[in-house]
Write a structure and sequence with these properties.
This protein has 168 residues and is mainly α. 73% of the residues lie in helices and 8% in strands.
């Protein structure tokens, strides 16, 4: 049974996946991209604040850096750990590691990134409301439930993409 799993192509995929994941993680954590992550967090905060302002204008939601405020009171702060980059790294590494035609990889990356960024913005928006109206539940939701809002779409999208990608 184990010999069926340990095929040359599976081992190659695993090695590529680990290598690409580590490389991307190093670039995003220590490379030149690190300085841009604050800008990324601000962009996520702007998008989430826009949704809050549109859905519930009375909230008085404004963005200050990567913090969402309600009537000048901090409600949600988007840190590097909460910017969704890790899900994007996971998806990127998985797609780039899979042996298929380049056009399927590009389509998967573009569509996957759009979906994951949208899910993350909705996650941040939901955390805004949880923090403001259900603060006693915030830690539980933030640490155990909300991460699934980026992890599950990543896995689901990847499996759907796998069924559509044409191998080389």
């Amino acid at each position: 049974m184990a010999s069926q799993f340990l095929t040359k192509s599976n081992i190659l995929f695993a090695c590529k996946f680990i290598g690409i994941s580590l490389l991307l993680a190093l670039v995003f954590e220590y490379g030149p991209v690190l300085s841009e992550r604050e800008g990324w967090s601000k962009l996520l905060a702007s998008a989430s604040c826009f949704i809050v302002q549109t859905a519930t204008p009375a909230e008085g939601c404004v963005r200050n850096g990567s913090t969402l405020l309600s009537h000048k009171t901090p409600v949600v702060v988007i840190t590097e750990e909460c910017d969704g980059i890790n899900a994007l790294i996971l998806l990127t590494a998985a797609i780039l590691s899979f042996p298929c035609m380049i056009r399927y990889k590009i389509m998967g990356l573009v569509l996957g990134w759009i979906i994951l960024v949208a899910c993350n913005i909705l996650r941040i928006t939901a955390l805004y409301y949880v923090s403001k109206y259900y603060y006693s539940s915030f830690d539980f939701i933030h640490t155990l439930v909300a991460p699934m809002a980026t992890i599950m779409p990543t896995v689901i999208f990847y499996f759907i993409w796998l069924t559509r990608a044409k191998t080389e």
